[in-house]
Predict the 3D structure of the following.
Amino acid sequence: MVYSVSKAALISLTKSEAIDFADDRIRANAVLPGSVETPLLDTVSKLEAERNGRSQQEQLDYWTADYPTKRFTQPVSNLSMQNGIPCRHVSTA
């Protein structure tokens, strides 16, 4: 619940800032990548898989089923998005 509320607040703040600074030609952007493939995700997916009677891969597939890309974000993708730097390691597919 806290995560969802925080994410919604960040989206609202970003939209407000974009409107407030539009006349000065200043852009406001937010990077909200969703779940990032990290050791924490690995740990949580194992625990959730056990709790739900699934294999770890089934749990990961269950979570990514609703993602448009059908995969988790890679940490290097976040860095590239935040810096606006094209990166050969970043996949948009």
Observations:
- The mean pLDDT is 84.
- Residues 76 and 89 are 7 Å apart (CA to CA).
- The chain has four helices and no strands.
- The chain has two domains: 1-30, 34-93.
